[in-house]
Design goal:
About 80% of the residues lie in helices and about 0% in strands. By secondary structure, it is mostly helical. The chain has one domain. It is elongated, with a radius of gyration of 18 Å. About 15% of the residues are buried.
């Protein structure tokens, strides 16, 4: 990845990615959480990341993704806790906490399966991530429609 994007050192490649998690994700909720309501924004950023040719454009895509994701995560977690029964809230909140670790595990599995076996290197990881984004978009759309129908019948 470092070579294909033209980054000079490995440390210059890893530090900004850590910065995305430590700085951008928490501050985005205040800055622009409203962008996260547009699911197509995630899909475009995921696709664009796989097509970047320069390290600066890669960082820009990942920073915008981190901003939108942080704005979405807090609202999603609060809504999920609000809608589930009080007895299940501990288990559901634990599932949210395990989600990040499971994501890293799946990313490692897909990296081993895709990176060395395709001529595109690391890029298919982001293209394959579109499957998850599209499934999430479909699920949230169906959930919102079901909630609207339920509220109309009340």
């Amino acid at each position: 990845m470092r070579k294909s994007l033209g980054a000079s050192r490995l440390s210059s490649c890893c530090a900004p990615l850590g910065l995305r998690f430590l700085v951008l994700q928490p501050t985005d909720t205040v800055a622009s959480g409203h962008l996260s309501s547009i699911m197509s924004f995630f899909i475009v950023l995921e696709l664009a990341t796989g097509f970047t040719n320069k390290y600066s454009s890669f960082l820009a895509c990942r920073a915008l993704f981190g901003i939108a994701m942080g704005g979405l995560y807090g609202n999603t977690a609060a809504t999920a806790m609000e809608d589930c029964p009080p007895a299940a809230r501990g288990i559901i909140s634990g599932m949210f906490q395990v989600g990040c670790s499971l994501g890293y595990l799946l990313a490692t599995v897909f990296a081993r399966a895709l990176v060395d076996t395709t001529p595109y290197g690391w890029r298919p990881l982001f293209w394959f991530g579109l499957v998850h984004q599209c499934c999430s978009y479909s699920f949230s759309s169906a959930s919102l429609k079901q909630r609207a129908i339920k509220n109309d019948n009340v």
